[in-house]
Amino acid sequence: MSSEVPQGQDPTVPFELEKSPAREAYLLLGAKTPLELSNLYSEEDQRLMLSQSWDYGNPELIVNKVKEILESIDPGALTEDEREWRQEILWFWYHHAISCAIWKYKDKDAAQKYATKALEGQSSGHPNQITRLLDHLVNGRLEEAERWAERIREEPEKSTATSLIKEYNEEGFF
Q1: Cys staple from 31: which of 36, 39, 47, 117, with CB 3.0 to 4.6 Å?
Q2: Contact 115, 139 (CB under 8 A)
Q3: Where are the domains of the chain?
Q4: Where are the beta strands (DSSP E) in the chain?
Q5: What is the pLDDT of residue 5?
Q6: Is the alpha carbon torsion for 75, 129, 131, 63 positive or negative?
Q7: CA dist 74 → 16, 30, 35, 71, 170 (Å)
Q8: Residue 142: pLDDT over 70
């Protein structure tokens, strides 16, 4: 991530929501800062995942509206904090879109597309290891997935990886 400040922006000036190109996303979630935008997005995302209502095919969901807003913005027009949290939100959206494509739609092409986008957006050093595992599985690379899973040591990701590989082997994803 670049440490450059958008042209004309002073890094010592506090964040100004009204001047942000992502203003509409902040208003949708009731956020006042980039970190709060990410936190509130994550809360909404998790609420939808737990209720099994997360669906990339529903344009009315706030997570989908926020994703569309953030993707339409040139990252160079954002503050450094906004760029970082924008990237995290978009990674999270694509990460969950993989699951939606697998379990809700049984759509291999969409799962592969979303896995590619999630990996492109996942920052280096990001702790999540399930995105890469899902990428291997939706692309039929079971041996690579198994090797990747062997490297995972932390819970709950270790158990999740084991469960995903077991399901893939027993039932397949598509």
Answers
A1: 36
A2: yes
A3: 18-111, 127-174
A4: none
A5: 39
A6: negative
A7: 17, 22, 19, 8, 43
A8: yes
